[in-house]
Design brief:
The two termini are 14 Å apart. This protein has 307 residues and is an alpha+beta fold. The protein contains five helices and 17 strands. Among the domains are: 98 residues, Orthogonal Bundle (Hypothetical protein yqbg); 114 residues, Sandwich (Jelly Rolls), CATH 2.60.120.
C-alpha cells in the first residue's frame, strides 16, 4: 500500500538534553557549570557622571549569561541608571539593554536581564545621580556544549528515520495519507506505520472521479489497539462495491505515532541513542557494514519490528 506523510512530526522522540546527557556533554551538576563574576562591586556608590561607573568585563562567548543589578538603599533624591554593554574585543563597547531606573520607591530589589547576544564580553555601567546609592552588579554564566547542537539535532532526526524504516513504525506523532488500490475482500484494512492514533477521513472515487467520504461509526470502525492499526466496516456494513477510479481511488488520512497515551518503548530510545553516539564519534564512514553497533541496535529494536 502506498502512503505519504502529509504533516511531519514537530517533536522528536529524543530531546537534545537527553542526547547530551547520554554523550556526557553537559556538566554533571548545575553548580559545576555555573560561575558568578562581579562587574560592579557592592557598596555605597557616590554620584557619578553619565555611565561614569564602569564595571569589569566578563567573557560570555559560548555560555548562557544573566546580568543582575542588586540594589540596596538609595539616598534621598538618589537614583541609579544602569545598562549592559557588549564588545567583541573588550575595547569598543555598544549598548545591549538597560535596567529600570532605581530610586527610593523601588530600591532594595534585584533586577535580572538575560544576555542572548553574540559578543565575547559584557559589562554593566551605571550613572548615580542625586545622592549616593548602595548597589552592585554581577554576571552569572552557565557553560554549555552548544557548538554542535545543530549536528546533534540532525543526528536525532536521522536516528529516528533509521529506526522508523527498520521497524516500519511511526516513532512520533505525524499525519499520514494511505492509498489502497482497492477495498479488500477481507473485512479490514491495516494502516502503515503503527501505532495508530486516530483516523481523520476515508474518501474514495468512483470510475468517473466522483469522490465520496464515508463516515466513522456509521460506515466503518477504527481499531487503534491492535499492534497494527486497522479499519473495518461497521456491523452489518460492507466496503463500497462501486467501480473505482484507476489511480489512487482510495485516500485514508490518519494520525500515527507514539505519543503521551502510547509512549515510545525505552528500548527504541536506547537504540536511537546508540546510533547517535556512534555517528557522533565517527564523523566519516567506518569499517564494513554490520558489526557490534548494528547488532546492538537491531537487538534492541527487533521486538517491535512490524515486518
Amino acid at each position: 500500500m502506498d502512503y505519504r506523510i502529509t504533516t511531519p512530526i514537530t517533536t522528536e522522540p529524543l530531546t537534545l538534553a537527553e542526547v547530551k546527557a547520554h554523550l556526557r556533554l553537559d556538566s554533571s551538576t548545575y553548580a559545576g557549570g555555573t560561575a558568578t563574576y562581579q562587574s560592579i562591586a557592592p557598596g555605597s556608590h557616590a554620584i557619578a557622571a553619565s555611565y561614569g561607573l564602569t564595571g569589569a568585563s566578563v567573557e560570555v562567548l559560548g555560555k548562557e549569561a544573566l546580568a543582575n543589578l542588586n540594589t540596596g538603599a538609595c539616598g534621598t533624591g538618589g537614583s541609579v541608571t544602569a545598562k549592559i554593554q557588549e564588545s567583541d574585543e573588550g575595547t569598543h563597547w555598544s549598548d545591549y539593554a538597560a535596567f529600570a531606573t532605581v530610586t527610593e520607591t523601588n530600591d532594595n530589589a534585584v533586577q535580572e536581564k538575560e544576555y542572548t547576544g553574540g559578543k565575547r564580553y559584557i559589562r554593566v555601567v551605571a550613572t548615580v545621580a542625586g545622592a549616593a546609592c548602595a548597589f552592585s552588579a554581577d554576571v552569572v554564566t552557565k557553560s554549555g556544549e552548544a557548538a554542535e547542537d545543530a549536528l546533534l539535532t540532525s543526528l536525532i532526526t536521522v536516528a529516528r528515520e533509521y529506526c522508523e524504516g527498520y521497524l516500519w513504525r511511526a516513532l512520533a506523532t505525524q499525519t499520514i495519507e494511505a492509498y489502497p488500490a482497492h477495498f479488500p475482500c477481507r473485512n479490514y484494512i491495516e494502516l502503515p506505520r503503527p501505532p495508530l492514533q486516530s483516523v481523520t477521513s476515508i474518501r474514495y472515487k468512483d470510475s468517473i472521479g466522483t469522490e465520496t467520504t464515508i463516515t466513522e461509526g456509521t460506515d466503518y470502525i477504527v481499531d487503534a489497539d491492535s499492534n497494527v492499526g486497522r479499519i473495518a466496516p461497521s456491523y452489518g456494513m460492507t466496503w463500497p462495491n462501486a467501480s473505482l477510479y484507476p489511480v489512487n481511488p482510495i485516500r485514508i488520512e490518519y494520525v500515527a505515532g507514539y505519543c503521551t497515551e502510547k509512549p515510545i518503548p525505552i528500548s527504541i530510545k536506547q537504540a536511537m541513542l546508540l546510533l547517535i553516539g556512534h555517528w557522533y564519534a565517527n564523523r566519516e564512514a567506518v569499517g564494513a557494514v554490520g558489526g557490534p553497533i548494528e547488532f546492538s541496535v537491531k537487538s534492541l529494536l527487533c521486538a517491535y519490528k512490524v515486518r
